[in-house]
Amino acid sequence: MGLLGLGAVLKSGGLGVSDYDAIVSINIFIALLCSCIVIGHLLEGNRWMNESITALVMGLLTGGVILLVTNGANSHILVFSEDLFFIYLLPPIIFNAGFQVKKKQFFRNFMTIILFGAVGTLISFVIITLGAMGLFQKLDVGPLELGDYLAIGAIFSATDSVCTLQVLNQDETPLLYSLVFGEGVVNDATSVVLFNAIENLDIGHFDALVLLNFVGKFLYLFFTSTVLGVATGLLSAYIIKKLCFARHSTDREVSIMMLMAYLSYMLSMLLDLSGILTVFFCGIVMSHYTWHNVTESSRVTTKHTFATLSFIAEIFLFLYVGMDALDIEKWKLASRSPKKPIALSAIILGLVMVGRAAFVFPLSFLSNLSKKETHPKISFKQQIIIWWAGLMRGAVSIALAYNKFTASGHTEVRVNAIMITSTVIVVLFSTMVFGLLTKPLLNLLIPPRTGPNTPSLLSSQSVLDPLLTSMMGSDFDVGQPSPQYNLQFILTAPTRSVHRLWRKFDDRFMRPVFGGRGFVPFVPGSPVERSAPDSQLGTVTEAENS
Amino acid sequence: MGLLGLGAVLKSGGLGVSDYDAIVSINIFIALLCSCIVIGHLLEGNRWMNESITALVMGLLTGGVILLVTNGANSHILVFSEDLFFIYLLPPIIFNAGFQVKKKQFFRNFMTIILFGAVGTLISFVIITLGAMGLFQKLDVGPLELGDYLAIGAIFSATDSVCTLQVLNQDETPLLYSLVFGEGVVNDATSVVLFNAIENLDIGHFDALVLLNFVGKFLYLFFTSTVLGVATGLLSAYIIKKLCFARHSTDREVSIMMLMAYLSYMLSMLLDLSGILTVFFCGIVMSHYTWHNVTESSRVTTKHTFATLSFIAEIFLFLYVGMDALDIEKWKLASRSPKKPIALSAIILGLVMVGRAAFVFPLSFLSNLSKKETHPKISFKQQIIIWWAGLMRGAVSIALAYNKFTASGHTEVRVNAIMITSTVIVVLFSTMVFGLLTKPLLNLLIPPRTGPNTPSLLSSQSVLDPLLTSMMGSDFDVGQPSPQYNLQFILTAPTRSVHRLWRKFDDRFMRPVFGGRGFVPFVPGSPVERSAPDSQLGTVTEAENS
């Protein structure tokens, strides 16, 4: 009932369809999206800018123009709606993240990623909450309860991985990329789960049992969300493999993949799980099995369609945040004490930096300790980048803040208005200032390889299909030089041997049922399938790139 | 303000996002879409069924189940919203139609298509209006005014090309396909323009001047809508050619194409033009210019993405109509006189058949008269198929009827309830019964080529990319055997010579600016570009298909 019910919002008048204002808004928004893409492309050479910041600035400018035109009545075209964010914009971004991630790197660093994303976020959450409790009271912002402080901790623990990833390069710095990226996803999920848990928390009697309950719920959400995502992904692989759409139509395959991915997210929502985690793992499973069961053209199409949808959603998001930043009502309400939001934002930014430092460096040390000589360690410079790359706060923070501090997108109580404006300031400042400094910092700490080494980057940006090539070539690579397969090896290099066990299991049980790499050209389960998947794929990739 | 404002509709409660019911609805809907695709695939061999009918039946069944579960309180998950239809579902379908149409066939039959689509629809409109005025009064349905009768004429002049096209095959019967399809698009536009014009008509003093005004407005809408679509398409081609996204990213190209296509539609809405016509011509221009300016992978991606979006929108539509058909409120209101809607529907169906016969046969005769010996004429059997293929009424009719006879999706007045239920009956009956009979009728009138001829069909359904191959090979073919280029030729074969003039103009002025076929590999405007585009494309296509 009423879902997508534009009818209710865009009120009908004549057929020319609905609310004139709504159509004007859509037009302006699409035109802005187009110009962001074009301007983002033109600025690409610039070492400071990236598309997120372009979109933010464009959003701010548009908001300013609208403010002037409407004489200060209005600054945004759209009211910020966390539903729009959580139902439409976030799923494609996170799904695409899972779909495109280099699975080998991701799983090799799995433990470190979980450590950073889950434990790290919890540490950051505790520090921000405690810091806020200690420092906010001196400012006399208004009546904040324990629940509010806990929510503030969760809100500002959510990093904005989207922005950072536009700066880091998967080919140049694979370890950093997979760490920061993986952490970002797990972090998003952790923050949202934390926030939900806090909302449902009975703060009246807070004791060890409640804490245990909280931890239990957290682990349960984590586990079930992942299982749901994996199950949906496998189901899609099975359906496409069994029905052999391949012979008939690319449209059906692409439709099924898109719909099933979205279904996994919505099912997760329905069951009150973490949609972000679910859709992320669904993306991983789909790229490991389903994607290999479809035709060539479906592969190219899904690959780029998912990337494009994610790209548009990201730009949309930053435009949106930029426009929303100038919402005049909030500022009016907060401006009776204009210095407070700024002081608050400064405190929060400080807490964010401390909170992040408090887990990045110790956890990196822990992670390095557990690694053997042969495995790459996280250098101090890399630790600084990991710390820096997670300082940005973005749309997740805004969405959570809106959810906590407003009822309907408007901010009636002064303390709420102050919290919202502070959140907006933190997001804008961290995205623009920290974001702008990321590229230079990266160049300073890890100078880009010049001379004969650069072609590796350039060639991967080749005319045709770098994503596709890297995807076909890199997931669960076979050629790992580790022949000693015995008990001692299992003990000394657990991750790697788990990986080998997984490969055996995958080949023996999963592939025959769900397809996957090298499926299409062979009879499923035939010995040829396992003997030379690489050479086979080599040809396919070449044909594609020729 | 409030655009896409889900926040208003899906009311917030906890973060788990919004209205539980809405999430349940989305889940059911996506699951239904998936099952329609799977079932549609399984039934593909069946000579009676097609995906539209599968979706309709699934929608009806689901509606029935919901009716039972909610004890008759509710049958649909979504309220039918013409905004959802006109803003989200129709644009991808029509754009894809323009994008995939075989332009050579379309433009060769351009005059016939316009004759059928515009003049034919007007004839059908007049006959249905007059018939309704004469026959409805005997039934005593209620107080209908002249404006209502005119609207009924417009509503039931809108054919449902979507359903038919799933039965006709572009490769098997190219002439029929291009005629029926082209007519369908022009017809949709004509009906919507007619309907809008009627809504704004001052019926008080209806005289020759008003009629002239009406005709003038109609032509103005037709012309400006087309120009807007062409302009947007050309702009997208120019942007992509000038910026050379190609070297960097497929995502940007695909985003720009998708966004610009949608922008053309929304701009058209904004200017109160016919979005359908605009987005259709935007699709044609994009496939002629823009599509050739992008990288290989962007071509594959856009091709299939547009087709997939259109495919999903179509299934969504039929599911929706199927569910809406069981809306209990309308039936309750109308059922105080249960026979009336059925009698009305029968009359309307009769009028539709007569109205369509009244223009298909005479106009085909006219069209045949104007053709020279060498040109293929429309045989009588083909005329019957054209007549039959346009008898189905679909979502456009329903959307227009809702717009006319309800204020907010509900039907308070009895006469309005009767009109809506009659429309639903006509749509269901024509889609299911006529739709089911189309395939057998086609087989009867034009027996499928068996034996050595069939491979032409089978090979085009090859593993890789029939759409892509046919698209690259067939638009504005160069190899037309018509060497005599003089005044007499211009007089005797106007269409063909216009085509030649267009090609010259295209090569001389358009291609150097907007790119188009064979653009990417060459320096624009170089002589090589024009000398051997076919062989060049041949290689590309082969590489893709290998």
Structure summarized in a few sentences:
With 546 residues, the first copy, chain A, is mainly α. Chain A has helices at residues 6-9, 20-42, 51-69, 82-100, 103-108, 110-139, 146-155, 161-165, 174-199, 208-243, 250-270, 275-293, 296-325, 328-334, 339-369, 380-389, 395-405, 414-445, 455-460, 466-474, 487-492, 494-514, 527-531, 533-545.
Descriptive report:
The structure is a homodimer. Chain A is mostly helical and about 550 residues long. Helices cover about 75% and strands about 0% of the residues of chain A. Chain A has helices at about 5-10, 20-40, 50-70, 80-100, 105-110, 110-140, 145-155, 160-165, 175-200, 210-245, 250-270, 275-295, 295-325, 330-335, 340-370, 380-390, 395-405, 415-445, 455-460, 465-475, 485-490, 495-515, 525-530, 535-545. In chain A, α6 packs antiparallel against α15 (about 340-370) and α15 packs across α18. The longest helix of chain A has about 35 residues, at about 210-245.
Shape of chain A: globular
* Low-pLDDT regions of chain A: 1-17, 451-492, 520-546
Largest interface: A-B, 99 and 98 residues
Given the structure, what is the number of helices of chain A? 24
Give the helix proportion of chain A (percent range).
over 70%
Task: Let me know the number of strands of chain A.
Answer: 0
List the topology elements.
2 copies of one chain form a homodimer.
Chain A: H1 6-9, H2 20-42, H3 51-69, H4 82-100, H5 103-108, H6 110-139, H7 146-155, H8 161-165, H9 174-199, H10 208-243, H11 250-270, H12 275-293, H13 296-325, H14 328-334, H15 339-369, H16 380-389, H17 395-405, H18 414-445, H19 455-460, H20 466-474, H21 487-492, H22 494-514, H23 527-531, H24 533-545
